[in-house]
Structure formats: C-alpha cells, structure tokens
Specification:
By secondary structure, the chain is an alpha/beta fold. The chain is built from eight helices and 14 strands. The strands form three sheets. Strands 3-2-1-4-5-7-8 form a seven-stranded mixed sheet. It has a five-stranded antiparallel sheet with strand order 10-11-14-13-12. Strands 6-9 form a two-stranded parallel ribbon. Helix 6 runs antiparallel to helix 8.
C-alpha cells in the first residue's frame, strides 16, 4: 500500500522515531512546532526538527498552535491527505476534527506503571520513579479525543531499575515505542489490525509536573529524596533547593550512608552540607542517612555547614484519593 505516513512531534524521541521509520518504510510528513512555541508551552526535551526534516527530504509543517485548534492548522493537515500518523513527543490532545482527517488513524503512545486505564495523564515515567514502581507498560493506541483513552493495539512491558533516572526511562520507553511501531506497521498499512478497548476500570490520572514542582522537600526521607532527584533529572530541569538565598540545582545524587552516627553526623538538620570534596561532589544530611551529590549547578562553591533550604509553602501537594491513586485530571 502506497500510504502517506506522518509524525506529529517536537522532541528528541520524535527524531528517534523518525530515524527508525526512515530505515523501515519512510515518512512523508512531519508536523512540529517552533522553538518559540515550545518555550511558551514548557516542552521538556524539545528539539527543533526542521533541519532534520530538510536533510532527509521530509515535508515539514510548523503548526501555529500546539493544540492544533487554529483553522490554518486544520486546513493544512486536511491538504496533506494523510493515511496514517504516529504521535510521538506531542504533549497535547489531537482534536477530533484533525483525527477525522487521517484515513487509517492517528496512533500514539502512553505508558504507566499499572497499565491503562490506570495512570493516564501527564509525566507517567517521572511519577513511576517517584512512587518506587518496578515495571512500566508502554501502550500503542489509536487516538480518540479523550485523555489517553483510545483502544489499544499492542503493549510492551519493561522493568524500572533502582538506578533508573528520567533519562534512562526515556531511553527504555523510546526503544519500546520503536519496537511497537516496527512490529505493527505492516498490519496498520494493510488495515489488518485489531484494537482492544481499555478496561472499564475507573481510570486514574497523573497530574502535570511543572519545573517548579522539582523543589526538594528536605522533610522527606533519604530514599524519597534520592528517587525525587532521579525522577526529575535531565532531560528535565533537575531537582533544586536554595543555599544562601541562591538556587542550587541537583542533577544526580546517590545514597551514601544510612548510618549517619558512624560519621559523627547525627543530630544535624536535614539539608545541612556535611562535607565537600576536591572534585566538587558533596554530602548532605537527610532524614535516615547521607546523600552524595554527584552533579549540580550553583553560583558559588558549597562549603560544610551550608544549609539547603526549600520553603514548605512553595512545595506543591499532589492530592490522592484514599487508595493512593490520582483520580483527577490536574
């Protein structure tokens, strides 16, 4: 079948999928957004794909609206006469009037630690690390106008390791998406595929995480803080705190010791810098032990006795129901 395939996306994972499809079948259209629109919408891991598209001979349309609600966007997509689309790295719903323009359908990915319909919504990989989950399900589904509610074509499960970060989760998820697309592409093009409606269980939704939600709560336990730092590590903005009134961003840390008494550091306030090393790494006191900071950004060298401060009133609370699930779209 001589189908016209498009990709909607604006992230590094989009380029990864473009490369995979170019090696398998080709891509006839890219729909993306400009750097200015990405900045306006706080798109993490954004990549300007216009040069890539030009280098590979892929027609590229730069949308006027990330939500694709501008009449110019709808008419442009109508004129493309698309048969099949993959939505990879596009953090917005696709409107019904755009979905109706794609003959076979628009297919996207969503993953969660409990599998759909649990864990719909935003930032599921970050939340899976924060919650200490051990597995993740990536689903290939056909888009409908709802939030991650479309019928599922295929699923890939992978493990979450104790050392995984936001970056390694993105790598694992990208490989899962590549596998799902390549495996199912022939059946999609021949329209020989079967979709399974999602379970009728009550859906749960993860709230959106914004850069300001990465403020460290030093009242938390050592293990929770270590997971928190991993969960918002690059390609996200990184966990942050304040020292001497200045913002300090922590990109990588690990549990150094759970017996603070052995190092003579019992009784110190959580967030206290205990020691610094010549290579720039430093130790910080936490409830339940000591954290070793491997990579950080600061406007000055830290020194023992510095206190990491995170105003509690600035720490966002993410409400859950009695069962511990997020059941509202936030």
């Amino acid at each position: 079948m001589n189908a016209k395939i498009a990709i909607f996306g604006c992230k590094q994972t989009t380029r990864f999928m473009l490369e995979a499809l170019l090696a398998q079948r080709g891509v006839q259209q890219l729909i993306t957004i400009s750097p200015e629109l990405a900045a306006k919408n706080d798109v993490a891991d954004y990549e300007d794909l216009r040069a890539f598209a030009e280098a590979h001979g892929i027609p590229c349309y730069v949308a006027r609206s990330y939500a694709l609600k501008e009449p110019e966007d709808v008419e442009a997509i109508r004129s493309m006469q698309l048969d099949l689309a993959f939505v990879i790295g596009w953090q917005r719903l696709i409107p019904a009037n755009v979905l109706d323009l794609i003959r076979i359908g628009a297919f996207g990915m969503h993953g969660s630690a409990e599998n759909l319909p649990k864990g719909r919504g935003r930032s599921p990989m970050n939340w899976s690390i924060l919650e200490g989950r051990t597995e993740f399900y990536t689903n290939l589904f056909r888009y409908d106008p709802g939030v991650d509610s479309g019928a599922v074509l295929d699923t890939f499960r992978f493990t979450i390791r104790p050392e995984d970060t936001a970056e390694t989760m993105h790598f694992k998820n990208a490989l899962a998406m590549k596998r799902l697309i390549i495996k199912n592409l022939p059946a999609l093009l021949e329209r020989q595929f079967r979709l399974a409606p999602q379970s009728d269980e009550t859906p749960t939704f993860y709230p959106k995480r914004n850069p300001e939600d990465s403020l460290i709560d030093w009242r938390a336990d050592l293990e929770d803080i270590e997971r928190f730092i991993r969960a918002v590590a690059p390609p996200f903005n990184g966990a942050f705190t304040y020292v001497r009134g200045e913002k300090i961003t922590i990109h990588r840390a690990s549990i150094f010791e759970t017996d603070a008494i052995a190092y003579g550091q019992s009784g110190r306030a959580p967030g206290t810098v205990l020691e610094t090393f010549p290579n720039g790494k430093w130790l910080v006191c936490c409830r339940g032990g000591i954290l070793l900071v491997h990579a950080h950004e600061a406007p000055f060298p830290l020194k023992p006795g510095d206190l990491c401060v995170s105003p509690p009133e600035q720490i966002r609370a993410f409400p859950r129901n009695a069962k511990g699930f997020y059941d509202v779209e936030a």
